[in-house]
Write a structure and sequence with these properties.
Length: 265
């Protein structure tokens, strides 16, 4: 954290924590040690320092507004912050991470969409974990974001034992997201968080689930399965292995049905 509220881990991206308050408290949350501590929330002076930091680092091409939930901020504050960020020439895109389309959909209003429209393009990454969370009200608000806010909406989910760790549930979730106008982006392996061991699924099972899903449903509906390496190592993808063998003049692949195919170079 070079300045309060900013994490600069990857070369071209910076995370900016604008609020540590959420509409719900998720037991699996990787930041739950900070969530609800409103004293940790950056103030106007911290914003100034963060904006100076972004201006001074031309390698930062993307700023991710995160939390807690950044949609706790008023429309006028978000409007101000987005204007300041969009004024920095090397910043290519701004992303907002929010769970409010799931947990407090009424926060998505025509006034908020007008703010987004003024700063087009804005990428919203939301967080649905189960098809039951895709209520009619949430769908209506996603439609508003896409149509009135002109935002691109993506989703990250967490793989949770007993909640969504089956092919049927994940397929229903990914189809449901796509039909609501959301691109499934990441499926996170559950982080090592105190008190959440009972939610963790073995990585081998997660890889097998994704292997069964890819090929069965359209690639448009399939997110990338990733693990965040504890200790600041960053995210790494967990790809399913399809290449069975590399021969002198051909490759042998196993497809999602388990059938082998050999193709030449
Ligand atoms: S809404 Fe997001 S930041 Fe808040 S507790 Fe849940 S996962 Fe954590």
């Amino acid at each position: 954290m070079p300045v309060k509220g900013v994490t600069h881990r990857y070369p071209d991206r910076a995370l900016w924590y604008l609020s540590h308050v959420c509409a719900v408290y998720c037991r699996f949350c990787t930041r739950k040690r900070k969530v609800s501590q409103s004293s940790q929330t950056p103030d106007g002076e911290d914003w100034k320092q963060a904006l100076e930091y972004f201006k001074s680092r031309p390698e930062i091409r993307e700023v991710i507004l995160s939390g807690g939930d950044p949609l706790n901020l008023s429309d006028s504050k978000l409007d101000f912050l987005l204007s300041e960020l969009k004024r920095i020439p090397h910043i290519n895109q701004v992303r907002i991470h929010t769970r409010y389309p799931v947990t407090l959909p009424m926060r998505i209003t025509p006034e908020f969409c007008a703010v987004l429209r003024r700063h087009f393009p804005v990428f919203i990454v939301t967080h649905f974990n189960h098809p039951k969370e895709l209520t009619d009200f949430s769908r209506e608000k996603i439609r508003m974001l896409v149509q009135d806010g002109s935002a691109t909406v993506l989703n990250q989910s967490v793989l949770l034992k007993g909640i969504n760790d089956s092919v049927e549930t994940l397929v229903e979730l990914f189809y449901g997201l796509t039909s609501a106008g959301i691109k499934p982006y990441y499926l996170h392996h559950c982080d090592e968080v105190y008190g959440s061991a009972h939610f963790r699924v073995p990585i081998s099972k997660g890889v097998e689930l994704m292997k069964s899903i890819r090929g069965r449903i359209s690639g448009l509906c399939v997110p990338l399965y990733v693990v965040d390496l504890t200790g600041g190592g960053g995210k790494v993808p967990l790809p399913a292995e399809y290449l069975e063998e590399e021969k002198s003049s051909s490759y042998v692949f196993r497809n999602y049905r388990g059938d082998l195919y050999e193709i030449g170079y």
